[in-house]
Amino acid sequence: MSGADTNQPSTVKSYIDSGVAAVQSAVGSLTGNPADKQAADNRKAHADLEHDASHVSAKAGPFNLSSSGAATIDNKNRRDGKADQLIGSGKEFVGNAVGSDNLRREGQQQNSEGQGKEAAGQVADFASGVANRVTGAIGSVASGIVGNKEAQTDFNTQHDKGKTSQRGVEADLQK
Description:
Blueprint: H1 11-31, H2 34-54, E1 57-60, E2 63-66, E3 71-73, H3 76-98, H4 101-146, H5 149-173
Helix pairs in contact: 1-2, 3-4, 4-5
């Protein structure tokens, strides 16, 4: 929903285009006009591609990049949680290898605590991502209406960073 760059993939726009395609298809079916039917099929295919493109994201460690072009870094709890899981798993492995029940249990506990931290960080990143997307979209529209291009750009950036944070969590959850 970034008003400044209409070439960016948009999930909302893909839904609108799918709806328009359905109406075009219905009109084509009623009139028997193959051109209307073909136009509807083309629009639907484009909407499907746009929807897929709007969900593209890349994740490298704690860094996230989405189709919006914005970059974010994971919440500190997510980073610390992953580190605790890694260290805890190492302690479990070593504890099992050397026969130390204390080290193995300590590793299991640290791993479990890390999972909790990571989950809390994911919830925080997802919630702030959604909030930034909504605030950015609304602010961008309002700024566009009053003609404040600088504010509109700032709100678009806020929206895009929110989208990137949200997609980063989604990428982690799909693993």
